[in-house]
Amino acid sequence: MAKPHLPFFRLITAFGIVSAVWLTNVGATESAPPVVRLFNASDLPQLARGIKLPPEARYTVKVWAPTQQTWSLAVDGPTLTLTAKIDGADETPRWQNVGGVDIKADGRVRLLVALPEAKMTLTTTSRSKSAPTAIPKPVPAALVFTTDPEFDPAPALDLIRGRVDSIAPPLDLRRVRVRTNKEGADFHAPRSAQEWRDRAQTVREHLLVTLGLWPLPPKTPLNPWVYGKQERDGYTIEKVVLETLPGFTLSGNLYRPSGKSSNLPIVLCPHGHWEDGRVNPEVQQRCIQWAKLGAVVFLYDMVGYNDSKAFGHSFLNDRLRRWGLSLVTLQTWNSIRALDWLTSLPDVDSARVGCTGESGGGTQTFLLTAIDDRIKVSAPVVMVSDSFQGGCVCENAAGLRIGTDNVEFAALTAPRPLKLVGASGDWTKLTLTRAYPAIRDVYSLVGSTDRVDAEVFDFPHNYNQTTRNAVYAFMGRWLLGINDPARTREGNQTPEKPEALWTFDERHPAPSDRKSPERLEADLVQVLGDQLDGLAPSNRSSAWQASKALLLKALKIRVGLKNPAPAELDETTVRQSSREGYTTVHSLVGRKAVGDQIPVVRFRPAEPSGRLTVIATSHGKARLISPQGEPIPLVKALLERGQEVVGYDPLFIGESFDPASPAFHRPNTDHFETYNPALAGDQMQDLATVIAWARSQPDVREVSLIGLGQAGPQVLLARPALEGISRTAVDLDEFDPKDGSVDLPASLDLPGLLQFGGLKAAAALAAPAPIWIQRAGKSFDKSWPQKSYALADTAHVLRLTPGTASPAEMAAWIDTGK
């Protein structure tokens, strides 16, 4: 993704009406119980947007915060503002009555407190820098609106939180730790050749999905326009325009050796971030020399450079990201289509294809080499490193380097010949001690150590003559059969003036129907949507099995969750207590190697049946408790059936939120989602971790799952990747991402959400597991799960209902399937 914009602390002023967290039954009689609504610190953005309370009543506002914080309430009509004074060092939390407010006829009220941005924002420039981080101000850990000034929230808090003696969240390292583009993934070769082959296949699929090339776009006619041939000493130069997508052109120059017309090797030359792109004199030099050596060479533009400058170099926004598309998609697709055209030429040998580029062109080189076996020799220059992964939007796509890095991408070249060249004056200075040994170990596994080589020269970031000569010698051996480096050395050469290479000018204007970024975006979304329609379940089982495999791969990569084994889990019991008919156990659950800690509450009935249900909600475990400190009816109904119930607070929700240093997402960094899961991904991983922990309990023989609120769509998206679940019920709350252009809550804003078909595809991919889907949105195509379950001969375990089930109905179905 593009670099997230750092939050500025501010007062949230957006106004809206949202559903209640809790609300007792309110009647018109004097005997009606008091109105009570209880909120956690993570609910404060909801309060800032606005809530609606039963009107014509006076409400008392109470906050739960450390004793050192004295909170006050200012009332301005329907707008309430909380502020705090800090005095002393006593961090023991207590309830404070901060004031009252009269709610008028419409019942609308909003509560403001200084907050950071609740959601990261995307930028589309590769050179934007992070703003300074503001010092966070504390917020109340919990607060109450109630018509009863004497109401005591302590019993509810006792069930909602594991710790009631402190507002401190668990020590989850994810709140403060992120991976940046200056870090690798500590790649090392696996133990065997078979392990490497399996891993290589996994990483290639990961690349194709995150590059937005899964499925590949249709290969439409390239309509090549080749003209303006220039005769030079030993070589020729021609101008080339290819239509790599309908209405989207790629310009470049084709260099050919003079006097040779058959069986010529190919060298593909993407360029780096030179200001003048492919017409830079240093870039031209290698193309001239390769043509003199006897190769057909294609030097082509980065998107937004030279002949495509009008298009710009920043093809990224929220809708594109949700469809899995980016500027990296366009550049990689251009390379694939350029190779399609080159290998179709009558004078080339399509079995001898090399690719070399520098810096950003090095990124293009190793990405193309990793996913396209037609590249037989590769030389990514001054880019392969474990200390810097790429700083431009054209090198960073959402999810691209999660769990992997450029070193592993380069290793995917094996066993094909690979040449690395680093420079002492940039991030590749440690090539010989860091990147190269790990890659060489891969070549050793496959028995091809003679095909990999690396050098570092004492220069700044470059692709100068010294570096070029090293690449000529290596690639010349494998492409041209020249074993004497002296024969490949570059002599004096004269580069062309820029205007001699540009494809568009007054005499040769650009096509009038070239698409703008906005038009191309719309067309790509339409094409991908049509492709997904073609992959939908049909009456042919074999066709759906093939489609299912493709879509499931994309879903699993985009969701990104891992199902941890019992040995990978860590559990700490915080406390437990007994109440009439059930026991509660508060724990912290996480993965040992990650350092995450998820607050969990486990309700155990007096006579457990061995069945357990995990309930995921958009407000965490707090949604399972009434303001009076009792389980909600759904939890009670499950407990009465002998079911254990587990609730949890995913990252940045409930007890996982830090009110002393409030933040709604991990720290911002350049191209955050290239290296780190989005919040939706982190929270779905929490779901997987909690389920794995529940399944590992020795007294549990069956685990089911319920998703409510915004957690309903989360659960459905994650369900095909989750293991060991008996029955699943989700209330989608009519969530509808439409075509991806609407604003989405961060908890559901998953990169690639629509790339694999979204919720309808997730439902279809859940077959044959029993599932009950309630209140689907307008764009949810029910035919997807209906046909998928019918093909699996399990239509009887799929339920699709327009309304919400009662607690008793939900509990009965979860417990018995009826």
Automatic annotation (TrEMBL):
Residue span, Xaa-Pro dipeptidyl-peptidase-like domain: 248-397
One example GO MF annotation:
hydrolase activity
Asked whether the keyword Transmembrane is assigned, the reply is: no
Q: Which UniProt keywords apply?
A: Hydrolase
Q: Which InterPro entries match?
A: AB_hydrolase_fold (IPR029058), FrsA_esterase (IPR050261), Xaa-Pro-like_dom (IPR000383)
Q: What name goes with this protein? A: CocE/NonD family hydrolase
Native source organism of the sequence: Singulisphaera sp. Ch08
Gene3D superfamilies cross-referenced by the UniProt entry: alpha/beta hydrolase
